[in-house]
Design brief:
single chain; alpha/beta; four-stranded antiparallel beta sheet; 13 helices; 22% strand
Amino acid sequence: MSLLSVRDLSVKFAMRDHSVTALKGIDFDLAKGERLGIVGESGAGKSITGFALMNLLSRPGFIDQGKILFQGKDIVHMSDAEMRTIRGNRMAMIFQDPMVTLNPVLTIGQQMVETLKAHRKLSKSDAEQIAIMKLRQVYIPSPEERLNQYPHELSGGMRQRIVIAIALLLDPELIIADEPTTALDVTIQADIMELLLELCQSSKVGLILITHDLGVVSQMTDRTLVMYAGKIIESGRTSEIINDPQHPYTQGLINALPQQTEPGRRLKQIPGNMPSLTGIPDGCAFSPRCEFATDQCRITPPEIVQYEHVAVACHEVNRLHHVTSKGLDK
């Protein structure tokens, strides 16, 4: 049995007299200890997917249909009390900005102890010892001293490590990391991603990594989902997605990476912008930006089908098989 199974998941946002679709027909599985990447531009639906998986959507957003099976149990219709036994306990989420995640008026120790005592029957001293152990696990120096510090007293990289330590407090089986290094400089980003990879491999924790960085995905994940306008448009093993992408959008994302352009030349880019939720075109949502689009692409939404070693939603995939990017040089 999969650790997580998502079936036909759709998310909508209610407006004054109608609703708009943010996610449509999302399907995927995650095995225990597997690492899955979700990539795409801003507005593709990546973060909404993460919030839906944690059942953290708040109005006007809501799950319109579908199932999210965590170890065989559908969390979509669980009560708040039932979700509290899973969220933070068996499923944890790492958010983009640690200064938003951490409470600025509580010490690190207070926040960690409070999290532990909400789910476990522990004394304060026992909870503090577990907190110190988790801080050591994420290579926080002098962890006993950090318990008495406030978030603003720590560097950005240190705060993000503490957020990871809090996510690990209750030994979850699944971590959802939503752009976990966005606010950090490049060297700290590499340290954080290496830490996450090490923790997942050593503890057999499932990881869903939400990011726009295909370079990070190539190093971190076993499988990848490429999203566009609220749909999965390509999925498969990360090595296949990176080195032999089939969808024109995936090819465009890879070709836009700086290392794919010779020094001194202009960076390549995908023309146009991601459509808004109120302006998703008929047919294939990517067709207005796609140089290979035909009349069929502009009229009929493509179904996702198996092609070569990946699943792809593109009418022209057979014709484009020989018109592909070079992949990402690792």
